[in-house]
Amino acid sequence: xxxxxxxxxxxxxxxxxxxxxxxxxxxxxxxxxxxxxxxxxxxxxxxxxxxxxxxxxxxxxxxxxxxxxxxxxxxxxxxxxxxxxxxxxxxxxxxxxxxxxxxxxxxxxxxxxxxxxxxxxxxxxxxxxxxxxxxxxxxxxxxxxxxxxxxxxxxxxxxxxxxxxxxxxxxxxxxxxxxxxxxxxxxxxxxxxxxxxxxxxxxxxxxxxxxxxxxxxxxxxxxxxxxxxxxxxxxxxxxxxxxxxxxxxxxxxxxxxxxxxxxxxxxxxxxxxxxxxxxxxxxxxxxxxx
Length: 290
Fold this sequence. Notes:
Blueprint: H1 12-25, H2 44-53, H3 55-62, H4 67-78, H5 88-102, H6 108-116, H7 120-129, H8 156-161, H9 166-174, H10 183-189, H11 193-204, H12 209-223, H13 227-233, H14 235-248, H15 252-265, H16 270-285
Helix pairs in contact: 1-2, 1-3, 1-5, 1-16, 2-4, 3-4, 3-5, 4-5, 4-7, 5-6, 5-16, 9-10, 11-12, 11-16, 12-14, 12-16, 13-14, 14-15
């Protein structure tokens, strides 16, 4: 059952939805949709609708449903709006965090227990989620072509034959060779290290939550190259984007200028937004006042 928190009686699912709404409302978040900026074919309203559509799956996670099944349901619901993929990565992080929170264990150890307990069925449901929406992913190595997530349900036999759990899949994606790797997968296998650290920063900061969100986003982007930027534009561009974010620091006026430049250049640091949303959820569960 959902646990009501001290902030106006919101429960865990309410906080997950609020985290998604606060993430997209935080302004400026250089390169991403926010309340002042839309991208081609992807608008602020699509994120609002995606958040509403995801609730059923978020509720399933809070009620103890398996991670994979709950995640697929969030994506099926999110995808009912016309913008396409709005929050795939956010939801991949939120579902295990919600399960940990609902059991009173919203800690790195608690969420690590959730993800390490995932099964082959969870992996199959994760792959099935890719049939609901287009997700930008790198091509897998030739030897792992049968594990390409874009195969969707067609990968089920391979997953079962190799007994690969969802945690196993994340481990394979986190640090492939010497490439940047999947930032969300890295969160899964690290005990959501960056998520909890960013949540602490949100709680320690002052002022409107939208401003705090923007500062945390820029700090996260400066700290590590963004997976989506690397996938779309190459690793050199992703590293340059992080360097430009580092030069901004906590100056939101400078971040506003950078936001315009990134939109013009087509840089969309979506993985950084995912971790920002996850951090907002943890901060809300820990008493972030809204």
